[in-house]
Amino acid sequence: MKMVTHLFTDAGRTWRQAAKVNSRGSLIYKALMEEMNGPLGGIMAAQIQRNAQYIKDVPADIARQMTEHIMSQSMQGLRHTDIAKNLQQLFPHMTDVKANLIARTETAKTATALTQSRCELHGIPWYRWRTSEDSRVRDSHRIMDKVLVAWDDPPSPEELSKEKDVGHYHAGCIWNCRCYAEPLIDLDFIQWPCQVYLNGSLRKMSRKQFEHLMPIRNVG
Ligand SMILES: [Zn+2]
To answer: How many A from CA of 219 to the centre of ligand 1?
Structure first.
C-alpha cells in the first residue's frame, strides 16, 4: 500500500506513468484494487458521484455510468484517447470531440479524486497545485502553479486572474485541465516562502506563517 501511495506522488501523476517507470504494472494495479476494497473505495465512490453531477448535458444515470466507466478504465491504466474510443462504443451518438473532452476531463478528475480520497483517509489537509509547466497551460492555471491549496477550500483560478468566474474547483477538475494535486506531506519539500491560497486570494507565506495557519501532521 505504501508503495502505491508513494508512486502516485513521486514517480508519476497517474498509475500508468508510475507503472511505466517501474515496469510492474499488474502488481501496482492489484495493490490499487486492494486499496479500493478498503475505506478508500467508499470515499472514492462518493467523489465520483459528485463528479458525475457536472456532466450536465446527459441524463444523471448515464453521467454516472460514464464516470464509473472512465474511473475503472483509467485505473486499469488506459490512456484517455483509448478511453474516448471505448466511450463511443458505449454511446455511439457521441462525437469524437465530445468523447475526447469527457474522457480527458474525467480521467484527470479521477486522478484528483483518488488523491483527495487518500488525503482524507490519512488526514492530509493541504496539497500543492501543479501544472504541466508548458505553453499550453491556461493563464488562470499558470498562476496556480506550486500554490498550496486546502482540500476544503477549492479556489476559482479564473476569479484570481480577473477572468470570467467558472466556479471553485481543485487541480485537474475542469475541462481539458492537465494539472494535478500533489499532497503536502512534508514542509521540507516546499521552497519557502511559498504562495498559499487563503480567504479567496493568493499570498506569499514563510514557513513559520504557514505553520501557524494549520498544524500539519507529518506523515512522510
Ligand atoms: Zn490546469
So the answer is: 27
